[in-house]
Amino acid sequence: MSARLLLRSAFRATTTFRAAMAPSMSRTMAAGGIPTDEEQATGLEKVIMTAAKTGADPYNLMRPKEYAGSKADPHMVPSITDKRIVGCVCEEDNTAVVWFWLHQGEPQRCPSCGAHYQLVAHELPH
Q1: I need a labelling partner for 112 at 20 to 30 A (CA). Which of 13, 21, 44, 82 fits?
Q2: Is pLDDT of 73 > 90?
Q3: Burial 53-68 (b: 16+ CB within 10 A, else e)
Q4: Which of 85, 65, 89 is CA-nearest to residue 75?
Q5: CA 106 to CA 35: how far, in whole Å?
Q6: Please, are residues 84 and 101 in contact by the beta-carbon 8 Å criterion?
């Protein structure tokens, strides 16, 4: 009885050792390679990737365009409502932020430096 138990455990050990040593083909290699990010993306990530390919930026992930900040070319601020709070760093090396409410309509000036900002309607894609 003990010999049979010993023989069975030795047989299992050698077969599992050989199976572990044998090279196996992974699922991704059998399907033709590793899928790209676009092939794996789903949901919101896929929406963002598709929009980035067309040049759109639905969630404002890209760096905003440069504007002069004058009355003729104000800084455009997207918003889904009719007002938004804006922070202006008036000077390049300034550590204080000047906060003010920006309302829809005509461009408004920063109370400290005079840069112009205008609210632009923005629709979320979902």
Answers
A1: 82
A2: yes
A3: eeeeebeeeeeeeeee
A4: 65
A5: 49
A6: yes
pLDDT at 75 over 80: yes
56-62 average pLDDT score: 75
Give the three-class secondary structure for 29.
helix
Q: Give strand pairing partners of 39.
A: none
Token match 């003990």: residue? 2
pLDDT band for position 14 (cuts 50, 70, 90): low
Q: How far, rounded to the nearest angstrom, does the alpha carbon of residue 46 sit from its chain's CA centroid? A: 10
Which residues, listed in sequence order, are joined to residue 75 by a DSSP beta bridge? 117
SS3 assignment, position 53: helix
Other beta carbons within 10 angstroms of residue 28's beta carbon come to 10
Q: Please state, in angstroms and rounded to a whole number, the distance separating the CA atoms of residues 17 and 82.
A: 68
